Amino acid sequence: INLTHGNIRLFSSPWSAPAWMKTSGKMAGPGEVLPNLKATWANYYVRFFEEYLARGVSFWATTVQNEPLTTYAPFWQWQATNWNATGEANFVANYLGPALAASAAARNVTIISMDDSRLYLREWADVVFSNPVASSYISGVAVHWYFDAVAPAELLSATHFAHPDKFILATEVSANSSS
């Protein structure tokens, strides 16, 4: 079954690189992908898409990481991998973008940046899209709809006008989220 036909388009969003690939050696809590394993991590994405496609399921897109900045919060205990905007841009430009482009199963998978709180949206987009190679691989940014009091919805418009060739996709939201 190809679920990208019709009204359903799937995207993936990893929560963590495997523990053995991270500086912390743990899935949960802080940790970055070890520098010598970034190509291996990019190939995990490719393998994920290959395995699904082999079973008739194709994906429209992937984010680089779900909530890449949350592990900088004290006592973070969920699965995550640290990325800042510059690190994500470099990972996409040098590893993930080329790996997906080289794969018959993944070359049409759209890359989405950030996938974190709207609080970081404009700054993150400015940094990532200032890297011309990363920008050529990334089609848009994903945002979580939290912190309305400090990150008003106007940030969406400001980011759109700064980067009109990129889309903005809400990927996580809670009703009446004011904190």
Automatic annotation (TrEMBL):
| Alphabetical keyword list | Glycosidase, Hydrolase, Lipid metabolism, Signal, Sphingolipid metabolism
Can you state which reaction this protein catalyses? a beta-D-glucosyl-(1<->1')-N-acylsphing-4-enine + H2O = an N-acylsphing-4-enine + D-glucose
The record's annotation in Gene3D superfamilies points to: Glycosidases
Specify the Glycosyl hydrolase family 30 TIM-barrel domain's residue ranges.
7-177
| Molecular function in Gene Ontology | glucosylceramidase activity
Q: Which domain of life is it from?
A: Eukaryota
The GO biological-process annotations, alphabetized, read as: glucosylceramide catabolic process
Q: What is its EC number?
A: 3.2.1.45
Which Gene Ontology cellular component terms are annotated?
Answer: membrane
Query: What family is this?
Result: Belongs to the glycosyl hydrolase 30 family.
Q: What is this protein called?
A: Glucosylceramidase
Species for this entry = Pristionchus mayeri
